[in-house]
Amino acid sequence: MNLIIDVGNTLIKMAVFDNTNVVFYRKIPNADFTKTVKEIFSEFLAVKCAIISNVGAISQEEICMLSVFCKVHVLSHASKTPFKNSYATPHTLGVDRIALATAAFYHNPKGNTLVIDAGTCITYDAINDYGEYLGGAISPGIAMRYRAMHEHTAGLPLLEKKSIIDFIGNSTESSMHSGVVNGVCNEIDGIIEQYKSRFIDLTVILTGGDAQFLSKRLKNTIFAHSKFLLLGLYHLLEYNKR
Question: Which residues form the active site (predicted)?
């Protein structure tokens, strides 16, 4: 069994994999990390290895604490990957994007794949049918767009995401919802069309915290997978054991 840990900007996602099957999954705040680690190892004695993707605030002390329980691989640009990395600055490529590219490589090993991670930021990552990571794009996520309008203006409120009835907003709040939700959906659909114009038989995978909210609002056919990044981390851990 393997322990998979994804430390994001807002929450930590922890999963125990028995081969590729998820037998434990939990989202926690950073403050609950140590407590949850102890709970996992009291229940899953067969866990021998762990991998951490850390884009958030897990400290070196907490990583050292985890290493008391099992062997720990901290994902970085120096980790081995199953794909060819053609990113111009591989040392700056985020560990979350490395994990998503790995998941895409194993999910569609001989095809062109675009992974869209709708989280704090929306990231786009492309793997071609030669198993080559090409790069992609990064843009503000849904919550970030709402927050930016509130923080950078004098009178706009801070809103939570909400479905829109019509793309023409008839109040300040409905106009903001339309701007964010309609804007994000049109951005994603437009970028998918750009990739489809270059890559034949493109597989599109949508993941991240806002994936379910967005999936039914997009025009393009996509494959939604809420734990796609965790699956990529699992494959990376196994690959780096070799």
Answer: 96 (proton acceptor)
